[in-house]
Amino acid sequence: MKKNNLLKVFLLSGLVFVGASSCTNLEERALDGTIQSGSSGTVDTHAFLNTAYNGLRSFQDQGNMYALSEMSTDAMVGPTRGGDWDDNGAWRQIHAHTWNAVHVHVRDTWNILLSNVYNCNQVIYNNGSAADVLEARFLRAFYYYHVIDFFGQVPHREKGSDVNADAEVWTRSEATDFVISELEAIVNSLPNRIANDASVANKDAARFLLAKLYLNKAVYTAANPAGPYTFAQADMNKVISYVDAISSNLASDYWDNFKPTNNTSPEILFSSKNVRSTSGGGLQSRWRMCQHYNQTPGGWNGFSTLSEYYDRFSSADKRRNYTDASIVTNFGNPVGFQVGQQFAPGGVTPLKDRNENPLSFTREVTLITTGNAIETAGIRAEKYIPDAADLGTPENDLALFRYSDALLMKAEAIARGGSSSATVASIMSTIATRAGVSAATADLPGIYAERGRELWWEGWRRNDMIRFGKYLEARQLKTSVSDAKYVLLPIPSAALLNPKLKQNDGY
Amino acid sequence: MKNSLLKGLMVFLTMLCTSLTYSQDVSGTVSDASGPLPGASVLVKGTTKGAQTDFDGKFTIKNVGSNAVLVFSYIGLKSQEVNVAGRSNIKVTLKEDSAELKEVVVIGYGSVKKKDATGAVDQLNSKKFDNVAATSPADVLRGKVAGVQITSASGEPGAATAIRVRGNTSLRSGNGPLIVVDGVPLDGGDSSAGGADSGLGSSSAKSPLNFINQNDIESMSVLKDASSTAIYGARGANGVIIITTKKSKSKQPQLNLSTSVGISTYSSKFDVMSKEQYVATPGSLNKGGSYNWKDAILQTGVTRNYDLSYATGTDNSSTRISFGANNTEGIVKNTGMDKYTLSISNSTDFFDGTLKIEPKILYSAIKDNTTLLSDKAGYIGNVVASALYWNPTRAIYNTDRSYNVVADDYLNPVQLLNSYQDYTNTSKLLASINTTVKLNSHLKYNFLLAFENSNSTRKSQLLPTIQIKDAARATFDGTEYYGQADINNLNKFNKTFEHTLTYNKEFSPNFTLDLVGGFSYYDYNFDSNSITGKGFNPNQTNLIDDIQGSVGYLSGKFGPTSHRNEQELQSYFGRATANLYQKFILNATLRRDGSSKLGANNKYENFYSVGAAYKVIEAKEGLVNDLKLRGSYGLTGNQEFAPNSAIAYANYISPKGLGNQVSPNSDLKWETTLSSGLGVDFTLLNNRLTGSVDYFMKDTKNLIFAKAAESTQVAPAALKYVNLPGTLQSKGFEVSLAYKVIDSKDLTWDVSANAAFLTNKLVDFPLFVPVAEVNGQGLTGATAQALVNGQPAYSYYMYDFKGYDSNGASIYTDAAGNNVGLGNAVPKLVDKQPLPKLNLGFNTSVSYKKFDAAVSFYGAFGNYIYNNTSNALFYKGAFPVRNITADVANSVQANSDPNSPSTKYLEKGDFLRMGNLTLGYTFSGALLDKAKIKSARLFLNGQNLLLFTNYSGFDPEVNVNKTFNGVPSAGMDYIAYPKAKTISVGLNVNF
Q: 2.60.120.200, 2.60.40.10, 2.40.170.20, 2.160.20.80: which CATH number matches B208-312+333-397+410-990?
């Protein structure tokens, strides 16, 4: 009886369920995604290429690469306005040259640039199509260029390396040599620039970047990153020949480069693309970062330029301001630099700030604004013409490389000993004529000054100031000469977990 | 006289002789306070003769001497000796035994007499929390067990709760203990969705433990040390809480009805300036109206509870069914929780008790209502923030009864409140069937099959009639439309399979052996989806139920997401316990765990523990009654991190691009905690004082940590899960005492107290990790705490505020410690921590005849709270546009002084709270008998009636989710939902 019972019991209980709980090998699956692993041969290389292109949108934000390139110079300041824009001192530190290895924009810049190098590697190392690999190699060179420029040292991973191991590290000059050789290997194989869409890697973009690298090679290979720099004639000739190879011409109107339909400008050699109301980066920052809350488009009441910088533009300079009937109707104020009383759309009704003082932007600004000018201190600017059809997801593309920059690089290369049939004066005249001003002096100081006006707030100021030896100097709100270490950013502190990276000197 | 004396003596002797020679059958009934008690033991003293009571609590013993003494005993109740004195029928009611050492406590895969336990285990039985209004079982544990800290994120009904057993064992999230309900280990995740972000910040999910009705709980057992948790191996490092639900104890039907109603009101002393104070402050902007933030958004919340349960049984079977309905209104308008629970349990024996089948169902349906509250609100704020900052001289309504709209970044709090709707429906089913086969008198096979299925839908909407800057809007055909609707579904389907064999045998009185061995497999499936629509017709009001009205629908773009993941765990385990000479108990546990989440190269790890106890003194009379020493040592683990963290995961975020890339780590392995502990359990002073003292050390190594992306470049811009070098060391000391001050027939008075001292430190920690995000205007990227080598975890790291200079600018310090202005200030470690150094609990109960009273206090000391609310809202520059506190308005701070995060906002978090006060009266008598009522009790319950603290915010018991880079925060207060005080009255009737 008892044995019979036991038998029944087993039949009824355990055995029924044994099949339902057999052993598993515990292999993990990606149920709502994919496993993009080279070893299993399932990398969607084309998707990684697109992801690397999307990475360019990071240049549209007001922070990171953009803030480090402009706000660390004489062109821009991000004042703390009472309770606003303190942000743990991040913006003040950039302007005052007091950042350190845990600065949030330093960290994020490092991650944005290098993770996009990784995206490119996924295409290059995993048998992407020939066309995709070419584009990925260009994009990788673009990202590497910025790592060289900001950080000096460049971590890299070669094909087949162990992802769990630390990346290898190039010195600044090794990385420069690599990126130049890489670009020279692909420049003639890249596609031609597509009319009305400079957002795809192309020959002209590669030529521009090569010119930029040769022009700065003296900086990137200098024994001391802060200089002195010795510009080799051979490098300058390379600059000239690559600029000469670019197939482009200036837009008739300077502001064609910054309007919502700026993709039609013949002058933009490489861009980060946005599609109105559909997809895009944070280009709205180009108007919102300065505009007061009560302006249209409404802004975040943040950044300003400095009067010292603003005063370098003559009142005739078309690059200083721009307006037309629709701008007056939609926004009330001209684009470009804004100083004095601001108006509501229509351009008639004067605006007030939140403390009910007149909204009148002052020339004076301090790192921490005070008194009645808390909200109104500082000259503001909109470099891009806001897209009235969608102020949040606009149509304007971000111009990354412009032909006028290439021309100025050529002029500088000639002035630094390169040989060309063209003259510095003729190039300077071309640039000045469009701007409606008389040409600057045909020498290095003139070129430096003209770059400051032509390329204002386009992300090149730090690079230019370093190359011209001006970056560390005292200026309006940075009253003492900076330590030489600030020509390079520190390696983010957590990145030093890779023992092959050494902190940059002085940090 | 002498004769009569002699006669009497004769009669007595005769009787005595008669009785000495006479034996009889004795039968009777044993019951406890709640009715007949099955399974109680009845023994004739000095013999081995005895019986067990049946399902109706009845027993019969044949041939009992008429002068014999019967010993009645039952686990957890006080044994009682009764002289038969010639009676043939004896009724005994056993009283609860508060001498905890005699208790049986539930441990993993079994139970043990507390006096034989080698591990640190505390059990809370239902008597201690019956009739306490609570929305989650976690609430009733608060302050009751030494070393268990329960912190609600806020005062909102059902708010997320952080439970910590012996402090934090891990650096990342996943510090909560493993919860085991009737043998089924729950996964550690949320059951309901967090709040969608309408542009004002998102909110956290509610506590996943809410699904259990605490009135269905028989006991909660807290396993604190390695000796007791190692049987759960990789999931035991944070401690284990085993919840056992009630079962039927009786064959006679028992019906229990319990109901209560309560009212909740705002309890905090915190306030911003009144209209009068505001107007009296120089520079104020008097708008001529009148406004009070409490009237605008607070309400008196009404709470109702109904519980109905019945239990019944037959010779072979017992069944208990209960229904619970709970309706809790929050003290912020539009918030509250409706909870309905159903519990069914049955136990049936087949084949003469060889097979026992125990099916169980716990079902809950919860509706959470909330308003726009957010953990990380920006400067526009949320419902509470806008209510606080609204100028008290501005009217809410214009004269035409329309809302007084000021600006899209200065929101009318009543308009915001009324424009926002947010509710979550969560249903959860936990069903299990436990089959036990008695293979012989020593060996049992047990199979547990369980599944847990939960479905949660959260819907929220912000009406298009309110405009919020940069939020909840979309452009269509060149026109901007407002409003946002979010629908978020979250489903879980979990399966548990466990096979265990248990063997126990008493080889001799000097050697007994208990063995447990088993295999378990857990399969946790999670999926979710969400949809967001923005930009609606201004006349549409039912956005969430007609999301097609959004701009997204028209443009073919909706903002949908969907996710799914699975994790599997597979384990083999065994435990041996030997009891030698009834003095020494030795215990060894081994568990081998594997998880699908770990790197391909390290799927499995072995966990173990050894424990020993020595009973120095046992059951002695006098001052020292029991004394037991115990020690344990073992390795446990923690696996609470997200699935798909070790593989080269990426998903498509458009037809073209990939996103959410994971930096893979095929070497990722278990985080392990090596712990050791010593403890003493004692009973003193003629069994009046019982207590335990414990000391423990824990070293957590191979810390699973999301390493910052910058340390892994060239790699995806994602955190990489790695095992960090370095150790999180924690040490602690726990004392719990219970004293019976008075224990007489009519009057009893018990006092108990517990205290836990806890410290931790990071050793050889290679990183400097900023944690605890600070939010608000001008506070982007700011953090308040850091993980730093050589310091306690989550040490505060910020500017050290030294006062104001003559211009009203804040003075901080530079690297050298000199006083400087903001421009030259550097943040520093200020040697203050958010985790309490001491947690206290104090409980006392008195009963006198039919009256009973109990009061409980708890508190935390030595911790600091970062008052992000003050940081974001209350600085001079915010005035006069925004209202601020009187303290700030009267300070010398300049209007232009930025509100940089600093020690200005760091406050002591010490508090002592009267958690509960209960007064009860138990009715009895003829009237009840007539109504067939066994017992009835009327009670009055007060929660949070007293609070002692110097903290300036709403409440010092706060833990707003400020997770930063995957590291959880502690001690952060940011516009947390204010805590209520609640007074309720209730009736509990047993039929």
A: 2.40.170.20
